[in-house]
Amino acid sequence: MKISTQTTCFLILGFSSAVYSSDQSWKDEDGLEVTITKEISDEDCTIKSAGGDVVDQYYKLRDEKGAEIGSNFGKKPYTFTLGRNQVIPGMDRAMRGMCIGEIRDVVIPPKLGFAKDASGQPLYYTVQLVNLFRANPGERWVTEEGIQIEQTHKIEGAQCKKAEQGDKIYQQYILRLEDNTLVDSSYSRNSPFVFRLRNREVIDGMDIAMDGMCEGERRRVVIPSEYGYGAQGSPPEIPGGARLFFEIVLEKLVKRDEL
């Protein structure tokens, strides 16, 4: 997995004490080795990756002899959130403190990779931090219809291009049920879902949840069944009476008078 960022020693992050360390290379006591092969200057590094950031990563995995096993360089970056157990522990640690564009060579010992103990082979990665997203949490509220809305990333007032009736919405979403079952996601199709706001093109709850949303804003939304698919549901994926748990992003907004 690969992503670029600029580095700071993991001693600063407090993960473990080091066997050796320098500005460009270090090895922790549990065997994780990191070497910076492309450094980003302080003036060009405006942000460093940290827990909670959503990172886009390029990676190349090799065996101990240097033969390539797999790579996504030049393809779609691999995206995950640091500190959420979405990747192996060694990769989560190796990607922290990076600047966008930075490249690192990483050796991950078996117990920080896919093995349950120290047996097995180390993993040899080259990783680059392509980009990162850091949320600006906003407010929470419940509409009069009972729809729960949380701004997981708020756009401040002067920068807000606000969605209104008739606007064309480009939306990314993830839909889950109350038990966390994944129902659908626009990300799996590599294309946003497009509709006109409050034009009866989506469920009522989604029209309500996105009304007044800013371009670039992210929300976590819970929609009661009466504003979703009702008592009948949408078999077989959505049972009758189900509440809908959405994570939504207003990726792009075209105002009605611009259409």
UniProtKB/TrEMBL annotation:
<keyword id="KW-0732">Signal</keyword>
<dbReference type="InterPro" id="IPR001179">
    <property type="entry name" value="PPIase_FKBP_dom"/>
</dbReference>
<feature type="domain" description="PPIase FKBP-type">
    <location>
        <begin position="166"/>
        <end position="254"/>
    </location>
</feature>
<dbReference type="InterPro" id="IPR051989">
    <property type="entry name" value="FKBP-like_isomerase"/>
</dbReference>
<dbReference type="GO" id="GO:0003755">
    <property type="term" value="F:peptidyl-prolyl cis-trans isomerase activity"/>
</dbReference>
<keyword id="KW-0697">Rotamase</keyword>
<feature type="domain" description="PPIase FKBP-type">
    <location>
        <begin position="52"/>
        <end position="133"/>
    </location>
</feature>
<keyword id="KW-0413">Isomerase</keyword>
<feature type="signal peptide">
    <location>
        <begin position="1"/>
        <end position="21"/>
    </location>
</feature>
<dbReference type="InterPro" id="IPR046357">
    <property type="entry name" value="PPIase_dom_sf"/>
</dbReference>
<protein>
    <recommendedName>
        <fullName>peptidylprolyl isomerase</fullName>
        <ecNumber>5.2.1.8</ecNumber>
    </recommendedName>
</protein>
<dbReference type="Pfam" id="PF00254">
    <property type="entry name" value="FKBP_C"/>
</dbReference>
<dbReference type="GO" id="GO:0005783">
    <property type="term" value="C:endoplasmic reticulum"/>
</dbReference>
<keyword id="KW-0677">Repeat</keyword>
